[in-house]
């Protein structure tokens, strides 16, 4: 699943090609996505101009300026990607939607599993129910170890699913939670409420470090993820624990262990993470 770094990589990749451009045509090949494509989307978008792209958690926000101003809320689901194409470039089997721009470029949405969606928001995006209850961005000043410590008091939930709760902090998915816990030296099975403030400060710093590195390197290559320019992510080359169960720890050499937490596979080092 594309996580926060993949969505941010996509935003940065497509922004220079779409911001300020007018939409001249909308082509919907498959409207039956996780949220059906709005029936009036073509009417709303043609003639509108794209503003400055933003991201909230794993959602991409595409503001539109014109007679029908509003925001496109885009989610890539399990296997979706947005990439730039040109007129004359034939669509692939799972290319479900095109935004044709006034310079001949095409913003093309590809999603084999169709778990993603694009929706229209006429009012303030911040008031949409899918965004209103989200926690702070992990790379913002609103996220720190004190918040983790305060929100965790009395919680018996394991720290890894606690860290992945979007009400606590957004966008820390399975891959990056595992990697951050390794860097912070915290066992992912430990109860969230039994971790000290000092250790949460280390964990918050590790979350920021892991996500910043992943964004810099273009996200993580998992299955068919590519960024907005069609380039794959490269962060997988640096993963310390995720997907490496049974292999030696890069730090101490002990065999990495696999457990299931919150119905998600979790790999950790029993020697380095306590």
What features would you describe in this structure?
It is a single chain. By secondary structure, the chain is α+β, with helices and mostly antiparallel strands. Helices cover 25% and strands 21% of the residues. It is built from 7 helices and 11 strands. Strands 2, 3, 4, 5 and 9 form a 5-stranded antiparallel beta sheet that branches. A 4-stranded antiparallel beta sheet has the order 1-7-8-6. The protein has a two-stranded antiparallel sheet with strand order 10-11. Helix 1 packs parallel to helix 7, helix 4 crosses helix 7 and helix 6 packs across helix 7. The longest helix is centred in the C-terminal third of the chain and has 20 residues. The radius of gyration is 20 Å and the shape is elongated. It starts with a helix and ends in a 6-residue tail after the last strand.
Q: How far apart are the termini?
A: 28 Å
Largest sheet: 5 strands, antiparallel
- Gyration radius (Cα, Å) is 20 Å
Strand element count = 11
| DSSP strand content | 15-25%
Instruction: Enumerate how many helices there are, as a single number.
Output: 7
* Multimerization status: single chain
Assign the structural class, choosing from mainly alpha, mainly beta, alpha/beta, alpha+beta, or little secondary structure: alpha+beta
Give the overall form. elongated
Organism: Halomonas rhizosphaerae
Domain FPG-type: 240-274
Family: Belongs to the FPG family.
Domain Formamidopyrimidine-DNA glycosylase catalytic: 2-116
